[in-house]
Amino acid sequence: MIFIVNTPFATASKGRGCPSCGKKATDIWIATMMARLPDVPFQHGTFTMPDALWPLFENNRWLLGHLFALAADN
């Protein structure tokens, strides 16, 4: 067991949990995602529909794609 008392030291663990290494990796990931994703005025959209409509889409799954396209356009 090693004890260090009143001695400043720096370590580079290269782990995600490390405050120093993890922050650097997070910043790099954010920059990569920002370059890859389109520049849009929103971050997240949610589309919901009543439970009564689900039986219609269970038997006609192809309609679901059209429904989401309509929701995205409006």
Notes on the structure:
The protein is mostly helical and 74 residues long. It has a domain at 47-74. It is built from three helices and no strands.
* Mean of pLDDT: 79
Shape: elongated
H/E element order:
HHH
**What does the largest sheet look like?**
none
Strand tally, please?
Answer: 0
Low-pLDDT stretches are none
**First-to-last CA distance:** 63 Å
Nutshell version of this structure?
The protein has helices at about 20-35, 55-60, 60-74.
Characteristics of this structure?
mainly alpha; 74 residues; 50% helix
Give the helix/strand layout:
Blueprint: H1 19-36, H2 54-59, H3 61-73
